[in-house]
Amino acid sequence: MSIKLTVKQRADTIGTLRFVSVFLMETLARWIPATPEMEVKMLLSRQVWRMAQQADRLGKRARELRAPLHYSRPPRQEFLAALKQLAAISDTTDRIDAFHDVALSALAAAHKRYLAETDRLTDEPTVMICEQALTEIEVMKRERNDWGSEIPKSRATDSPALKAVRQAVAAASKEIVDHSEQAA
Amino acid sequence: MDQFETKMVRGVTMRKDPAREACFTVADTDDQMISWPEWTDESKRERIHRHMNNEMSTTEVAAQCLCDFPDAPWELRMELARQVWDESRHAMGLYRRLKELGGRKGEFPVANFEWAVSSYLDSVVGRITVMNRTFEAGTMDLMAFIPDGWRENGDPQTAELLDAIAADEIHHVRFANHWVHKLCAENKRNLLKVAQAVRFMDMAQKALTPPPGTTNLVGVSVEDVAQSAPINVADRQLADFTDDEIAVLLKQHDLESLVTGQETRT
Description:
heterodimer, A: mainly alpha, about 0% strand, B: mainly alpha, 2 domains, two-stranded antiparallel sheet, two-stranded parallel ribbon, 10 helices, disordered C terminus
């Protein structure tokens, strides 16, 4: 038997996943009044609640790992910069794709990495939270195309802004957790 | 809180309207709106259309609170996030019904008064006081009667839709009541924020109310289509208004005799 992650490392990852979930919730919330299309506002609103619930579950789990309740830990600088670049997108179709395709894919990859690293028995409460998040991420990604007849389809070719965000997130998402002391 | 753009309407500075599609004509005051007292097919669509925009606007107020007040208690932010989802489902339900009745987005002018007033305020306690505890609670009063109006006019489907919406709104008022009391108990400065918010809302409402005799875009007197209702005591109790608070509201409506033992909707 080998326990790969310490309790502190688990808490750090949970705190980082929570930070990202809250960041995305706030990004969606900021886009809602600023996006003209009614059905798009409503699609983003659904995802606000889903991201909030994911953050809530992670925040409660953090306390079980000797971290404060709703512990939030900023990710590595490169990933945070990429998230901020994503949040600055202003075109409606780009916003939809930046969240559903780019951000959610990066978040799913982070959950999967954690599941691969942690001990599924001793850390089973976190495992369940991550698996639930992955299921919800799949639902949200499906809703991008299936929910509402007036949601604009993705462009055949990415706009320069979306392309840049896609590249920035891809480059920064190999490891998002900052285990250094100053990130705490 | 980020800087935001403002607009001035009849001398009142408020938050600039949220983004709307080009099909919508955005009005500031009731005389720029369309509304009829009769229950024609067109008037039914206008009622749904107006309500749909109001739900969209409330979605936007709650969403804006989430990004403007990142340091608000997490449990309150969870309530606001849930409200964002609820209000969006209400807007979509009304949009679905509007299309079933042959209507379309942008068919009538819309106004975002509740957004313009609520989102101008610089505190979360002020915003939930105005948006949830005042505007939404006022809607709760109206909703004690509006579904019956639809039933009486041959549209039980819309009545059921509105009743489902009204049930959700009770919780939005309830959580605002809980948090306004809690935040004021924790920090007396929040009482000042609440007072400022209510004063601003009253001032804006008075300034934007058209003078008597004003007509709307279809020549109907604005007073004839203004909506008001007695206090919905039963739902206000469910929304955790205290007996004292309900008594004050009833007194304002000259209904003091109903204060004690009220169990049904007035």
